[in-house]
Design a protein that fits this description.
CATH class of the largest domain: Alpha Beta
Shape: globular
Number of strands: 14
Radius of gyration: 23 Å
CATH topology of the largest domain: Rossmann fold
Distance between the termini: 38 Å
Helix content: 40-55%
Strand content: 5-15%
Structural class: alpha/beta
Strand order of the largest sheet: 3-2-1-4-5-6
CATH superfamily of the largest domain: NAD(P)-binding Rossmann-like Domain
Mean pLDDT: 94
CATH architecture of the largest domain: 3-Layer(aba) Sandwich
Bound molecules: uridine-5'-diphosphate-glucuronic acid
Amino acid sequence: MHPNSTYAKLSQPLESSGCLRVSVIGAGYLGTTHAIGMALLGHDVVAMDIEKEKIAQLSSCELPFFEPGLGELLRKCMELGRIRFTTSYDDAAEADIHFVCVGTPQLPGSLNADLRWVETAFIELARRVCGPAIIVGKSTVPTGTARRMAEIVRRHSADRRVGVAWNPEFLREGCAIEDTLRPNRLIFGVESPHAEKLLRAVYQPIIERGCPVVVTDYATAELAKVSANAFLAMKISFINAMAQICEATGAAVLPLTETLGYDDRIGRRFLGPGLGFGGGCLPKDLRALCACAADQGLDDVASLFRQVDAINLSRRHRALALGRELLGGTYAGKRVCVLGAAFKPNTDDIRDSPALAVGVAAYREEAYVVIHDPVAMNSAKRVHPELEYAETIVEASRDSDLIMLLTEWTEFIDMDPALLSTAVRSRNIFDGRNALTAERWHSAGWNYRA
Ligand code: UGA
């Protein structure tokens, strides 16, 4: 690792003055990153997961997912002896503060989140934890869950001193460790001064550097997370709605975005028109909030979120239609090179990936689809073995009738149109992320659509 790299700087332990014993339940994306973050803060961390294979991998310093720089930090924490991995709740129970980071996926056939893993973690910990420890929920959950977990702890714990808190996480895949160690806010949903004190102690180095802390109740802490994601989703769907208006009226969406972005009440970020959002968080949280509003009888509010979701999904149909146009009206029998499988760059996560959804839809319209992604191909192959995969951009585009750029990896943005001209059958390119410089492709003789 280069000594001046961001990760090298981040890996200089921030060192809290008091080292706490921390357990992290759930060694998925959030849990593993949080556990490493806690170890970098100087705490003594045990990360627990019921999946033996995952724990074996992590114990031998191997990450079960892709995240830039995180592997090196894991190695460093292991060398310092600050982190260990286990499959046993008994090993985790000794800690002073327990972070529950298990998944809350969308329930099949429902807008609601599946909370069974959260419940299990709270029950198993409550049965074992003693003393003035706290169990802190980090998983994204619907409002009312923390209160229910506090009741579960009261029911299953023999020790009245064990407390509950909610401390949502705002990390983004691809910049997970930066977001963990340099968050722009910390939210503590607490019901006792002791829980607040412990949370302040565990995050002390971050708080000392000026990170704002919002101390609030359980319900507000729970909503803080889903509302942030719903807002980001709304911003993306807003600009995509404007993109539709631009298309209909002949206006240009990119300069429009620029003008909006100069207004710092609006801001430029998350205002990128294109294929829309995906991943394991924004769509799920938006739908959970929609279900919450509907449950509360707030139909107008529910319909706002439903519309944001619908606009987002319609982008995939629009992308498919533009690709079809470039192909002269049909995908059948055409060779289509799909660039991107991950839901966004710098991750191998393909959950609700717009890129993959479009690739699969083209395949269903009888195109011969070849996909390339710098890191997400194995994840994609597992779920879509019916598609073809190629190791390089050139290989994927060989003899293609259409290239569809659907995830804006830097290496796709930097592609050389002249080089690809020699590989493809027809020079048609669809830029689903407004990521390419149109002029560069036009001047190399390509039909470019965005
Ligand atoms: C998101 C939030 O940004 C995090 O704050 C939150 O902690 C996380 O969910 C979570 O709930 O755990 P993430 O899903 O990693 O993080 O991805 P984002 O960077 O937010 O991107 C979400 C989607 O929006 C991607 O598909 C991306 O391509 C899309 N997007 C983003 C756009 O379509 N346009 C934009 O302008 C920006």
